[in-house]
Give the backbone structure.
Amino acid sequence: MAIAQIDAGSRHVVALNSDGEGYFWGNEYQPSNAWGAGGISCNRSLEALRMPAEKTFVSVAAGNNHSLGLTSEGNAYAWGLNRGALGTGDQIDRLSPSAVLMPEGIKFASIAAGGGSHSLALSDDGDVYGWGSNSYGQLGDGSLERRLLPTRVMMPESVKFVSIAAGGDQSFALTEAGELYSWGLNDQGQLGDGTQVNRLVPTKVELPAGVKFKSLSASLSAHAVALTEEGIAYAWGANDSGQLGDGTTTDRWSPTLVAGWTPTSVLFDGEAGTIVRSEISAGIARVTVKTPAHDAGAVDITVTGERPNGEPVDPVLISGGFIYNKVPVDPGSENPDPGKPGIPPTNESCKLPRKDSVFADAPLSHKFYREIDWMECKKYSTGWRQPAGKPLYKPADSLERQAMAAFIFRMEAPKGYKAPNVSPFADVKPGDSYYKEISWMYEAKLSTGYREVSGKPTFRAHDSLSREAMAAFIYRLEAKASKSFDAPKKDSFTDVSVRQKFRTEIEWMKKSGLSTGYRDGSYRPKDALSREAMAAFIYRLETGFRKK
């Protein structure tokens, strides 16, 4: 049996298999009704949940003594000890998953089980609901009253959340722009707002300059951690056991960088390079090294370093990590992919796959080598130029919305297009990178952007492109072929139902052979689209779908 999703509580673990069936295991010192098997004994090995009739879950969450499950229809179920956290309108313990009494007309997109006998859910329109204990304001409704039914959090004006996390007696949420809000108990700085003041409603946390959070997780006690868009970790709250990872045992009242390490030497096939500059910016250690003389070809790099407390780090070997060119290359500056506007016309005579990789990080063995190589051959992507050696494609990186605009613009190559003097978007102005491409996307009715209170939409050029947005862009691009498409009544993906905003577009992608989804049967519409996946979609579109 393959486990598709898992979550750990204080004394138990809940999990889902690829068919949406639930399982659990837990500590022998707690009754099994904390987990939902329906018995009175404890389990040290995996045990099946007593699932609701004809229901499967798409996600589960574990708290201290209760658990939650979410169906593909957006309905929540709960089981375990009940101090209101089950959302059933009473405080009766449940030995198996029981339906949460849902607010009228509301569907949940995600769930979170807290350690303080409270639960959270994010609705599909970006609002948060809470129920259960509320002694410290962890339900965010402005009161300290226990709620036995899902109650809407007092939402900040003009704010929509995209993810949530439930801590011990505190709650957290992230906006699409990477902003953090928190509410509830704050005696150890676990809200991260720089104080020890409890908050009864969501309160915005001031993040370090230039930092945006992409995901977060809250412990069921008194600390939390978050990742930035660059994969850098920050933590805050209680730190008595060093759980914040900053090299101390001092509580932190604001997001604090998890300690990494700084390179102290770089060897090229055993020959030392000269470190000319070393700095930490936005949590990333950046080192500029003058390379020693060497014959052309690939060399191994060995990096040594130390942690903030002076502790040495084991050497890191990067096989073939640097390539010496036969001819010196002007280092220039990093070129933001997918290249500068006005690149050469599309090359229609690509002979693929080529026997030598164009990009240093997309070798012949790469899963999407053919597609990535084709992207460069067609001049849709130039990658990032390096001081020496081949450019980088960065296959696993999230694709920015502006890069998608550039890719599509180059595919269509609209002749004689001239960008307007007045931008259609509030956050993109003439002279910005890809202004022409983004403006064309708007005028071609491929992107309407995001509606704002000010009235003028925003494009959010540097945001990661979601998989559902990608489907929408391509569906609109292929309007002639897609306009007659009728979405099937039966869902093709386990996580895309009739309530999904872009279900038609996603179903069309499936029908057209442009996307097969994941092996577990999901499409993952909210996930950020990787650069390698985008290469595959564009490749299939031009070489397959458009050739039919």
